[in-house]
Amino acid sequence: MPVLVIYNPVSGDRSAKALFDDHVLPLLAKHNVTPDKVVATESSGHVGNIVADFLLSSDHAQPISIVLGSGDGTLHELINVLNNTPSPKPFPRIHLALVPCGTANALYAALFPPSPQEDPVEYKLKSVKAFLSDDHDSVPLNLAVNVLSPPHVRPPATAPPKQVSISAVVTSTSLHASILHDSEALRASDPTIERFKTAAYQNITRWYYASVKLFPRKGPEVVEVYDPAERAFVPHENSAEDEPIVDLIGPFSYFLSTVNVDRLEPAFRITPRAKETLEESSPAALDLIMIRPMRDPSYTMDSEEARKAFAEKVGAVLGAAYQDGAHINLRYAEDGSITTEGDGPTVVEYIRCGGWEWEPDDIDERAHLVCADGDILTIPTNGKATCTAATPMNDQTGFALYT
Ligand SMILES: Nc1ncnc2c1ncn2[C@@H]1O[C@H](COP(=O)(O)OP(=O)(O)OP(=O)(O)O)[C@@H](O)[C@H]1O
């Protein structure tokens, strides 16, 4: 199988080149693997062009392996550039050995949950070692297809084009999209994950107005919601097989779905049960976390004061996500305080679905931001965003990960 080695020298703390020179390339050589190419990316989007050129330049009908040293953003670019590259026939399956060199490395941390005792370099080589071993697994990568559409116009031919972006990790609006939007501006001064916290403080009092539809996934055919009492997903009370779509209104504080991952950073387990959906037989799913302030019994209306006070609760929820995903068990007591006891409304709504639609209120500018694996997109005025879970069509195409 052809092997490409690609790393992004500016990912995370910029240590990819040293890691590849000192550890990854010698490890490949030790196993008599001679890569067809070893390339450092030179700019945004370059990773996709390297792979597309390689696949198009020869008749590579057979699968290839890529040892990819980067964060989640570079993988996102690879998927999207290939998706937008015209090709006479579908690209073959691409098997990835990931080397986590980025800031958050959500996909890698989800596949290989870190443990404190582990040697940091050994930890980063796990997927490469799986690739080099005889008895490796290669798990297919599910995808979330995001489409941002303008409003319908007549005749349809005059409508501006839709924007499509494919996520392998996360699609979000609301607080998370605002954080990613603002943290990009902080990247130069702070290359660590601390910049996400700084941006979180800047945005935590915002609420976002939108109407939302949730669609079921194949298999259950209903939208499901996590029930902490049952410790399981159960059918959503407003979803039945004959009328499965759930309609919701805002305001929203947090709205984020993941695919493939149970965490966005090694310790931030925002969708802690998501790995259940990666089993071979499980239909593609999005695990969605929503926080809607109006579920809190202490508020009946939006005000500056309510937003400030609610920010503390959002902080507590996100803090609990760092405690092994404990936020999914939090409820409101009658006075609005947060508890793990009783049967009050859950603070977060943890949903499992096949897709969602987000239609922002036209005057709420920040509600138009969508984050797809760190890329920030803007929904056109009066338009909407949809996010749909997808699995590879067959085992000859798409992406798979060495584990
Ligand atoms: N040589 C380069 N110079 C500048 N930017 C580059 C170069 N090569 C790739 N990039 C860009 O670097 C960006 C960040 O990459 P990546 O996602 O790998 O790291 P990260 O953002 O630190 O990690 P994570 O996504 O896990 O938080 C990508 O969007 C990519 O377009």
UniProtKB/TrEMBL annotation:
Q: Offer an example of a GO molecular function term for this protein.
A: lipid kinase activity
Q: Which InterPro entries match?
A: ATP-NAD_kinase_N (IPR017438), Diacylglycerol_kinase_cat_dom (IPR001206), Lipid_Phosphate_FormReg (IPR050187), NAD/diacylglycerol_kinase_sf (IPR016064)
**What is one GO cellular-component annotation here?**
membrane
Source domain of life is Eukaryota
GO biological process: what's one of them? sphingosine biosynthetic process
Q: Where is the DAGKc domain?
A: 1-143
The protein's name: DAGKc domain-containing protein
